[in-house]
Amino acid sequence: MANLFNFTDENNLNPSVEPGVEPSELSKFSPGLLTFAAVVTGFIMVIGLFGNLLTVVALLKCPKVRNVAAAFIISLCIADFLFCAMVLPFAISGFWTRTWSHGGALCQLVPFLRYGNVGVSLLSIALITLNRYIMIAHHSWYGRVYRKHIIALMIVFSWLFSYGMQLPTLIGVWGKFDYDPELGTCSILPDANGRSSKTALFVIAFIVPAMLIFICYARIFWVVHSSEQRMREHQRSQHTSPGTLNNSTDKRSTVKDNRETKARRNEWRITKMVLAIFLSFLVCYLPITIAKVADSHVHYPVFHIAGYLLLYASACVNPIIYVIMNAQYRAAYAAALCCPLARLSGLTSGAYPSSPACQPVRKTERTSALASYVRP
């Protein structure tokens, strides 16, 4: 571990690299390309800090979007905000200087935070997906599973597990966090016994949650498709049975159908939004994850840099998805931006009457949303 603090040789382009070790592949890129990467990363950092903070404020402020899924989305936003605040500045420095110049302690802490936030993000997405699955496929369990203390335990578990499984690497007994002379940044390297946790982390923190999300969505699509078929058959049976309902009953049935259809569509929009978040996560994280495992000796450095830029972009893409895919989130953002700063101290209180997304949710609306997926 002592070599972590050996960053003082001014004659070496990469001060942490021991004599006889080749300069990092990062140093072989043109200054213009690395400057471009630093600028793009800085832009991502600013957008991510603002977007994730705004999302947290909007979800806390507006009761209509403050549901169970929002609790996990807030956890996801906090992880992305910390990633932007505590990891990306060092990434910008690395692209700008082509080496690591922040000392050995931070060389261990920064990758620990980076991998930890990746784990929290994916587990948060998995928990949101599981929430959607239980809401749609097993709504009778919903009230028993999603109580306040259980939701809190789920969120705490996602953070403790994501960081806890890295503790052996942090203390150097299963790989180690150290300067990677081939890439010119700090990452997971083999320990003194030649062991590394990269592959295991890839399986535990990426493959397993991704498979859980895939299975949940496959089941969600099947249940929704079956429900739509039953709905159409039910409507056809009503239309082909004249004289069984009077006009007033027929009108009440039509109003109820319209209300439940609207609630069902809203829940389905949220489900599709979570799917888009997961797909964006795959697009952003899979390249660098594959590069770390399949090209551990950095034979293709361009692939690594492109992967890092995609990884950094994941920290700011989720608020963009919320804005594009959900009208209630757009209204919540508008309410959060328009409210006076003096009101921000009471974010959990009432919201502006002019913002539909910030109106309290009536109990009948919540019941209708749950029941819409289990109609005969």
Automatic annotation (TrEMBL):
Transmembrane segments annotated in the record for this chain: 33-60, 67-92, 112-130, 150-174, 200-222, 273-293, 305-325
Domain G-protein coupled receptors family 1 profile: 51-322
UniProt subcellular location: Cell membrane
UniProt-listed CDD domains: 7tmA_GPR84-like
Pfam families tied to this protein: 7tm_1
Chain positions covered by the region annotation Disordered: 233-261
Domain of life: Eukaryota
Entry membrane topology: Multi-pass membrane protein
Annotated Basic and acidic residues bias: 249-261
Keywords: Cell membrane, G-protein coupled receptor, Membrane, Receptor, Transducer, Transmembrane, Transmembrane helix
Ranges annotated as biased composition (Polar residues): 238-248
Cited SMART domains: 7TM_GPCR_Srsx
Major place of residence: membrane
UniProt record similarity statement: Belongs to the G-protein coupled receptor 1 family.
Protein name: G-protein coupled receptors family 1 profile domain-containing protein
Species of origin: Loxostege sticticalis (Beet webworm moth)
Species lineage: Eukaryota, Metazoa, Ecdysozoa, Arthropoda, Hexapoda
